[in-house]
Automatic annotation (TrEMBL):
Pfam family, one: ECM1
Any single GO CC term annotated in Swiss-Prot or TrEMBL for this entry: extracellular space
BP GO terms, sorted: regulation of bone mineralization; signal transduction
SUPFAM superfamilies found in the cross-reference section: Serum albumin-like (SSF48552)
InterPro entries on file: ECM1 (IPR008605), Serum_albumin-like (IPR020858)
Domain of life: Eukaryota
Location of this chain's protein in the cell: Secreted
Gene3D superfamilies, per the entry: 1.10.246.10
Key words of the record: Repeat, Secreted
Protein name per its UniProtKB record: Extracellular matrix protein 1
PANTHER family named among the record's database cross-references: EXTRACELLULAR MATRIX PROTEIN 1
Main location: secreted
Key word Repeat present: yes
Gene transcribed to yield this protein: ECM1
Amino acid sequence: MGHLCSAERKKPSYGPWNLPQTSFSHLSRQGEALSELETRFTRCCQLAEGERLPCCTHAWEGGLVRFCKQEYSTKTLPFHCCREASKQARLTCFASQAPFPTYEKEGALLNLAQLTPLLLDSLCSQASQDSKQRPNPALVQNITDTCCKLQEGERTACAEEVKSQFIAAFCSSQRRTWKDPQKCCSHKDEAARRECFDRSYLGHISLLSSEQAPLPTEATP
């Protein structure tokens, strides 16, 4: 629980900015489940010390139940842990998939709140090397497709404009399924809305791979 509830832990962000919008729907479902778990874990960590572990355990088990129900509601093959026969077997399977079982480390994170020339150079370099089979985060792909063909000195302004357009398009969409838990889209002022996205979502974006990303393990003391 110490690592999970540490004030210094950078909580990964999952949403339409880093989840591919086509061909990799299983990653979108996993990302949404992870975001929900992070929100519930945050609430549990605000409780008294003796109440944190039971709360996180309940949140984790409930999150996996909801995730597996959603997996079976799709036409694709469910995540393999969901196909285990018993509850305990499913929990054990998910726990075995965790890259950092005790939350002592963090996965690769990307900061799109601060679009620097160095970051854009890195994104453009990676974009030129990526296979078409690799899922491209939606916002990253929008930036690289639009801005990487420009001169280096023009990329930052381009990326900032692409990000603003992405946020505006997302918030105006009538079909969005992501719930915007921090209510950033409710800001009428464009600058305030963007600042909310930068602060709440875009500073700690988790990078997903084309493999099915595991859900986090059960919280331990």
